[in-house]
Write a structure and sequence with these properties.
A hairpin with a 6-residue loop joins strand 1 and strand 2. A six-stranded mixed beta sheet has the order 6-7-8-3-9-10, sandwiched between helices. Strands 2-1-4-5 form a four-stranded antiparallel beta sheet, with helices on one face. The radius of gyration is 18 Å and the shape is globular. With 232 residues, it is of the alpha/beta class. It has a single domain, classed as 3-Layer(aba) Sandwich (Rossmann fold), CATH 3.40.50. It binds adenosine-5'-diphosphate and magnesium ion. Adenosine-5'-diphosphate (ADP) binds next to strand 2 and helix 1. Belongs to the ABC transporter superfamily. GO terms for molecular function: ATP binding; ATP hydrolysis activity; ATPase-coupled transmembrane transporter activity. Pfam families: ABC_tran.
Length: 232
């Protein structure tokens, strides 16, 4: 459960200049299993997404995840909320898929054999078992995105926040990642420009100019977004 209470985010755009408002007046109570966030470039979607796991902290108001305050319980929040970036290169730090997933599992106390088995299981689930020992750089964009997702899910987060996870992918890989995200048990907050993906959500938020301008079922919210973008 994700709660935003009167949240605003302001930041200094250039040193000495007055703060700019990036988000304002956000009140949300998100309990739906699939929440999509749509909006124009620069509207505030990533800021909204990053507030959920404490990568960005509110200037005003509070963000609570299962009752924990992101400003006070950062470490607990990040164990609970997994975050997937658009660009998997921002997330993958180890030379091989096996090592990358092993790194994600470092917090779990497992003996070496259990750890190896767990790593193999995660890679197999994401279709990467045959690539366990290849260089991460040799993977396709789609495989890298799956690996980034695998690493995040290996930590067993209760909530997954994905910021445009399929934007860099071709149609085939987009479908693979979409199907995987659709299949998860976790609550997923998905920032996307893919209106077909948004249409499958239980609830859609439309962000414009740092505010939530529509919030409801997918059909109505996406209509509002299309109207605002004047694309029909
Ligand atoms: N730390 C920051 N300092 C100043 N401006 C920022 C900062 N983060 C985001 N912005 C600005 O706030 C607006 C919203 O950014 P963002 O949340 O990344 O939007 P989106 O993901 O919808 O493209 C943009 O104009 C961006 O340049
Ligand atoms: Mg963004």
């Amino acid at each position: 459960m994700i709660t935003f209470e009167s949240v605003a985010v302001r930041a200094e755009s250039t040193p000495g200049a007055p703060d700019v408002t990036i988000l304002a007046g956000v009140d949300l109570h998100l309990v739906e299993r699939r929440v999509a966030v749509v909006g124009a470039n620069g509207s505030g979607k990533s800021t909204l997404a990053r507030l959920v796991n404490g990568l960005v902290l509110p200037t005003d108001g509070r963000v609570l995840v299962d009752g924990l305050d992101t400003a006070r319980d950062g470490a607990a929040i990040r164990r609970r909320v997994g975050f997937v970036f658009t660009d998997p290169d921002a997330q993958l730090v180890m030379p091989t898929p096996r090592e990358d997933v092993a790194l994600s599992l470092r917090r779990l106390t497992l003996d070496a054999a259990e750890r190896a088995e767990r790593v193999h299981g995660v890679l197999a689930r994401f279709g990467l078992a045959a690539h366990a020992e290849v260089s991460v750089h040799a993977l396709s964009g789609g495989q890298k995105q799956l690996l980034a997702l695998a690493g995040v899910l290996a930590t067993e987060p209760a909530i997954l926040v994905c910021d445009e996870p399929t934007t860099l992918l071709d149609l085939r890989w987009r479908r693979v990642v979409d199907e995987l995200l659709d299949s998860l048990d976790q609550q997923v907050v998905l920032v996307t420009h893919d209106l077909d993906a948004a249409a499958r959500a239980d609830r859609v938020l439309v962000v414009d100019g740092g505010r939530i301008v529509a919030d409801g079922d997918a059909w109505g919210a996406i209509e509002t977004y299309r109207d605002r973008m004047a694309v029909r």
